[in-house]
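Priority: low. Protein: Purine nucleoside permease. Input follows.
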Amino acid sequence: MRLSVGAFLALSHLPGLSADATPGFRGVTNSCLSEPIQPTPEKRAPKVMIISMFAPEAEVWHKNLPSSGLGDLLAVNISIPGLSPIFPQAHCTASGEICQLTAGESEINAAASLTALALSPRFDLVRTYFLVAGIAGVNPKLATLGGVALARFAVQVALQYEIDAREMPAGLGTGYIPFGGYDPCDYPAILYGTEVLELNGALRDRAYALASRATLADDVGAGAHRAMYADAPGGVFERATGPPSVVRCDTATSDVYYSGALLSETFENTTRIWTNQTVITYCMTAQEDNAVLGVLLRARLWGLGDYERAIVMRAGSNFDRPPPSVTAYAHLRLSDQDAFHIAVENLYRAGVEIVRGIVDEWNCTYKVGVRPTNYVGDVFGSLGGEPDFGPGGLFGGRGACVGEGSCGSAGGASAAAAAESMRRRRRRGGVGGGWK
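Result:
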């Protein structure tokens, strides 16, 4: 979640939770509709779990979903130990097909809440699609205010060394250096495993097609702010000047709410190098995506969820760098970009099309899952296959093995072999290896 200065004012105008709304009903619209799920007090198996980060992102679903015919998310409220103290419940429609959880802002909150959900005996999430739906900062090179982006890569860009820019060596251009490296263009020699998480590209493309059906909201004030980017040299910010649209590009995760051209360009470079791409694909900045996906990946290893069913959707509430002739400080703290309301609204408008598509096409497509055509997982190769980025997986393409006893029959690589591989890599990281 990225919250601009105007957003703080906007919060007071958003509607509160509707406690007395009546459950909605989804009528039969085509032959692909599955049988209704009959919820039980013990365990629910939703088809879609919407992940919000803070109250406005959740409330737009609570307010609007009943009129969609898909149900009322406040029909069933489920307390789960370990959720955020201010968001202690998951919410579900009466049918149990659609649920929503507010994780809390920042990586720690998101990881803690998703872990609590994954381990909760109240849910069976093995076939659930997770829709991460939050507002974000937006790169004016690739998208615009109010625009919606579906990601293939989530990159934890701040997981690096940082030297104060006032003390960095001449010629580096940035104070960020990958762990174990000596130059900003080095690939990290020391990996934690959450640096890059690649999602199911085929599912991302399906979600993009569904979200593209939406008519997105816009605002005159946001349009005026976009127009300020038209004067950028060479038309580099041309996409920033257009109206909201749905695009495919990637997210940068950082708990630091950064702003300004130099930092944003630094992280453009980080995402390009770490994902092994030749072009810039970073267009949204957020605080939670790698945390959410890291939990879903581990849940998949233990048979508690399906990482291949994760979708990351972000809507731009503010640009991550200023227009020409505006300072980074003024852009961050003094400018009202008038896009908070439309970003929140467009999360719902685009997201409900994704949710409807999954529910309506459950039997025909989504029940069995969408088979990925790309590598899916982390830089370690934990889910199997060889990463198409980084130095190669730790598990020989077989994936990590978990659980009790020997992993030989499961085909997974041993933890000891993976640990030794990691030790060798760290020794190659240079003098001192960058150890903490």
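The longest strand covers residues 129-138. Residues 80 and 120 are 7 Å apart (CA to CA).
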